[in-house]
Amino acid sequence: MLARFMRPASARLISPSIPCLVRPMSSLTPKSYEHILVSSPRSGVGQITLNRPKVNALNTPLMSELNDALRAFDDSKATGAIVITGSERAFAAGADIKEMQNLTFSEAYRKDFIKLWSDVTQITKPVIAAVNGHALGGGCELAMMADIIYCGPTATFGQPEIKLGVIPGAGGSQRLVKAIGKAKAMELILTGKTFSAEEAERWGLAARVFETPEKCVEGALETAETISGYGALAVKAAKEVVNQSYEVGLSEGVKYERRVFHALFSTKDQKTGMAAFVNRTKPEWTGE
């Protein structure tokens, strides 16, 4: 949450958006959205850009559109990985407080308010968050739902819901603890303090920090393109077994990984990949 508690933007955050590397989604039926931009800027890569003025405050309509676009890419055989990004000023500066300020407990509980946000985690293809500017509250939670986080130099993370008299509601307390440990997560959630891109990388939340916002998005697209060049079944299995480590203990996780590893020997891609390695040729993946 917390769009209203972001710190004032400095001069370097004035740019309203990062140049969007867009070409039409040739593999998908064109669809118009109000709060997001959707494109396929590279082979096998889907890009979703949050596009709600001024700081990409998250609300139900935006998240519904995001989920719809994610499912479309997930269902497309032409897409192997997905990048979610925002503007240079804000990836997403928090949830739209006006949408929730007058909710009662019974209303929020009855309709399971913001449950649909977690649909992002149901996507089977790898999702990369390219974060520039503010990723606060719900924006931080959305970034943490991705499989990989890349940061630009101005990226700022935080869970400042305590300043509104509430707590993170879309998984922030759970995912932050697993990413950076209880002590740091507890301090950040109880104080509402923010942390930088460099700290996110040092603590293990982010994979990389780039020199400019543009390089952050380009880096995410490059990694997504690399991933999409591998066999779809192996990529799906790899994401699945890594995520399983969050759900079970070590011994059960290792056993689960081994069973999925065994299962891949029934696929054509395994035969193709190993034969290509032995024969020193380039594999032609079929996703079967």
Keywords for this structure?
single chain, alpha/beta, 2-enoyl-CoA Hydratase, Chain A, domain 1, Lyase 2-enoyl-coa Hydratase, Chain  A, domain 2, 2 domains, 10 strands, 14% strand
Task: Determine the fraction of residues in helical runs and give it as a percent range.
Answer: 25-40%
How would you spell out the order of helices and strands? EEHEEHHEEHEEHHEHEHHHH
Sheet with most strands: strand arrangement:
1-2-3-5-7-10
General shape: globular
Q: In this structure, how is the largest beta sheet organized?
A: 6 strands, mixed
CATH architecture of the largest domain: Alpha-Beta Complex
Number of domains: 2
Give the integer mean of the pLDDT values.
87
**Number of distinct helices:** 11
GO molecular function, one term: enoyl-CoA hydratase activity
EC number: 4.2.1.17
Enzyme class: lyase
InterPro entries: ClpP/crotonase-like_dom_sf (IPR029045), Enoyl-CoA_hyd/isom_CS (IPR018376), Enoyl-CoA_hydra/iso (IPR001753), Enoyl-CoA_hydra_C (IPR014748)
Describe this structure as you would to a colleague:
This protein has 288 residues and is an alpha/beta fold. It has two domains: 194 residues, 2-enoyl-CoA Hydratase, Chain A, domain 1 (Alpha-Beta Complex); 48 residues, Lyase 2-enoyl-coa Hydratase, Chain  A, domain 2 (Orthogonal Bundle). It is built from eleven helices and ten strands. Helix 5 packs across helix 6 and helix 9 packs antiparallel against helix 10. The longest helix is centred in the N-terminal third of the chain and has 16 residues. It is globular, with a radius of gyration of 19 Å. The N and C termini lie far apart (41 Å). About 8% of the residues have low confidence.
